[in-house]
UniProtKB/TrEMBL annotation:
UniProt protein name: DIXC1 protein
Coiled coil is among the record's keywords: yes
This protein's GO CC annotations: cytosol
Gene Ontology terms describing biological process: canonical Wnt signaling pathway
């Protein structure tokens, strides 16, 4: 019996040693909770980074929209100025065309007057010649 008792005591000590080397269910749960907490913390950090990136992108988008609106406003102003300058150019072109027409008309009148002057000078010369002959 004593041998058996010693054998069982030895077996109990071995089992105690094995039990100590194995983690307890509470320790395993605590380790699992620690891992989950670390994962949750990492996910929270990633979510925070993603939120910050989203906010930065939103701010950049707002800034770009403001710049586009400003450029569109400037473009509208430039188009308005261009239309005004086109109107002025058309008005000046019309005036120029009218002046060219008047100049052409005056040129034709000058040619007619020069011909008439030459004709009258020829008549005068004939008259002077007749008078001189008479």
């Amino acid at each position: 019996l004593q041998k058996e008792l010693l054998k069982y005591k030895q077996e109990a000590r071995n089992l105690q040693g094995i039990k100590r080397s194995l983690p307890s269910p509470q320790d395993a749960l605590q380790q699992r909770l620690i891992q989950q907490d670390a994962s949750v913390l990492q996910l929270k950090q990633e979510l925070l980074r993603a939120s910050m990136d989203k906010e930065e992108l939103h701010n950049q988008n707002v800034d770009l929209q403001r710049k586009v609106e400003e450029r569109n406003r400037l473009l509208a102003e430039y188009k308005k100025e261009l239309c005004q300058k086109d109107r002025h150019l058309q008005q000046h072109q019309a005036k120029l065309d009218e002046m060219l027409r008047q100049l052409s008309e005056a040129s034709y009148q000058q040619v007619d007057l020069e011909r008439e002057l030459e004709h009258r000078e020829a008549l005068l010369a004939q008259c002077m010649k007749r008078e001189a002959e008479e």
